[in-house]
Design brief:
Radius of gyration: 23 Å
CATH superfamily of the largest domain: Type I PLP-dependent aspartate aminotransferase-like (Major domain)
Mean pLDDT: 96
Structural class: alpha+beta
Strand content: 15-25%
CATH architecture of the largest domain: 3-Layer(aba) Sandwich
Shape: globular
Helix content: 25-40%
Bound molecules: pyridoxal-5'-phosphate
Distance between the termini: 57 Å
Number of helices: 15
CATH class of the largest domain: Alpha Beta
Number of strands: 20
Length: 482
């Protein structure tokens, strides 16, 4: 790859700073002078490049110069035909991917353990989800990837579907057989879309699962801000040869801001350069740290930090070893309880805790001494809190009963009912623990006793439940006519 040492947006901003341009445009803080407290907090360096689009800096909605060059370099680094800089999170990348792949009444085949942004997109465009229930690992209580046979069946039963969507990987690090699923999609005239919010490093590291674009995906949503080191909210949407990039840009512009932040854009540009030049070494270190942490945690006893040994050739086709996913139930504590103790008693913030697991995100910014702290805190937690695990619920995959499309349910006439009285009705909103943001209920799905028990238990254990109009999730909006 040539030219990866360049960072066109960074270079343009540096040039711009030298020019001392007098700002009679927005933002109104005028390089920070109009807001001294904010400037004191964020620093002058930051405020002087918080600027709006202009001739020398290009325009995110219609890139023709430096943003375009930066996008081309990103496409090359990721092995994609096109890359789009996204400033509204991977949520906006996922939404643009789905909005450009299907429209109202058209089907998309997908696993149900998707992030809320995927189903949100279907509320926006009226597409119909065809869920492939993910397999589950009963010991760990986590949902896995999609089995190839189940995807084949869904394709046979829905030959008119427009696309198949794959998590590459899941939050826990599990990958489906994306190469085979991509081939299956293409053989049947469908697109292959990948939610790669947790897979940026696959493109740069060695001995990691195959990245989506290399596996033949047509579009992939990549959270550069997660494992790639850029600023929060900055992401890439990657596209292959089969899709029309100009149409995708139009779709992106349906919801994208017209004031793209140069802080975010430059962070994407600089991080892409960093990973293209040094990614191999960076992720080799990350893998070593995660491997070391796993070994030490498994020595403590009762915790299970899992890795490639759970691979089963199908629904766990591969595993991302940078993900430090730890099963906690044998300590007698729910994942969310360990998450809370780590935060409250040890000042350690992990990515999430669910009913049976925690996920510690290991990345480019970690040091071995931070890993040591995590290991010793987990060891102490076991010593202080270990108890009988009777009565602890496992994270379960609750197979949804889809009654109507997410769009129809969300926009239908609704009634608000206390949780207990909502059983049997069709939900018109989301309920999920955040993170990981995988819906327990999505609009259009039947509310069952099992789901209500699960919600009550998650609340009792301290999970942060989100999605419902009622912020305390004591009431649910249901569809009036069902
Ligand atoms: C699998 C998955 N997809 C998409 C997203 C959305 O990413 P963002 O928070 O950058 O909008 C997330 C966020 O955690 C996620 O976990």
């Amino acid at each position: 790859m040539s030219g990866q040492e360049r960072a066109p947006i960074l270079e343009a901003l540096n040039q711009f700073k030298k020019q001392r341009v007098v700002p009679f445009d927005v933002p109104g803080h005028k390089r920070g002078k109009g807001n001294p407290e904010l400037t004191g907090f964020l620093g002058e360096q930051c405020m002087t490049v918080d600027v709006n689009s202009m001739k020398c800096l290009d325009n995110l909605c219609h890139p023709v110069s430096v943003i375009r060059e930066a996008e081309e370099l990103a496409a090359e680094a990721f092995g994609a035909a096109h890359a789009f800089f996204m400033v509204n999170g991977t949520t906006s990348a996922v939404q643009s991917m789905i909005l450009s792949a299907a429209k109202r009444g058209e089907k998309i085949i997908l696993p149900r353990n998707v992030h809320r942004s995927v189903i949100n997109a279907m509320i926006l465009n009226g597409a119909i989800p065809v869920y492939v229930n993910p397999e589950t690992n009963n010991e760990l209580g986590i949902s896995l990837g999609m089995s190839l046979e189940k995807v084949k069946k869904a394709v046979e039963e829905n030959p008119e579907a427009k696309a198949i969507l794959v998590n590459n990987p899941t939050y826990y690090g599990v990958c489906s057989n994306i190469r085979k699923i991509a081939k299956l999609a293409h053989d049947n005239g469908m697109l292959l879309l990948a939610d790669e919010a947790h897979g940026t490093h696959f493109y740069f590291g060695e001995n990691l699962p195959v990245p989506a674009m290399r596996a033949g995906a047509d579009m992939a949503s990549v959270s550069m801000h997660k494992s790639g080191g850029s600023l929060t909210q900055s992401s890439f949407l990657l596209a292959g040869e089969r899709v029309n990039p100009d149409y995708i840009r139009q779709v992106i512009n349906l919801t994208q801001t017209t004031s793209g932040s140069y802080l975010l854009l430059s962070s994407l540009d600089i991080s892409r350069k960093n990973l293209a030049l040094h990614g191999k070494d960076i992720f080799s270190r990350v893998c070593d740290m995660a491997e070391y942490a796993r070994y030490e945690i498994n020595q403590i006893g009762d915790y299970y930090a899992y890795s490639k040994e759970i691979i089963n050739g199908d629904s766990i086709y591969d595993f991302d070893v940078t993900k430090l996913s730890i099963h906690t139930l044998n300590v007698g504590l729910a994942g969310i309880e360990v998450y809370d103790i780590l935060r409250d008693d040890y000042d350690i913030q992990v990515e999430f805790g669910d009913l049976g697991n925690i996920l510690a995100y290991v990345s480019v910014g970690d040091r071995i001494r931070d890993i040591e702290r995590l290991v010793s805190a987990l060891s102490e937690i076991r010593r202080r809190f270990k108890r009988d695990k009777t009565g602890l619920m496992k994270q379960e995959y609750l197979s949804p009963q889809v009654v109507i499309t997410p769009q129809k349910a969300f926009y239908s006439e609704k009634v608000s009912l206390p949780l207990k009285e909502s059983e049997g009705h069709v939900c018109s909103e989301f309920v999920m623990c955040y993170p990981p943001g995988i819906p327990i209920l999505a609009p259009g799905e039947r509310i069952t006793r099992q789901i209500l028990d699960y919600i009550e238990y998650a609340k009792e254990k301290g999970c942060s439940l989100t999605g419902a109009e009622d912020m305390n999730t004591e009431r649910l909006n249901i569809v009036k006519e069902y």
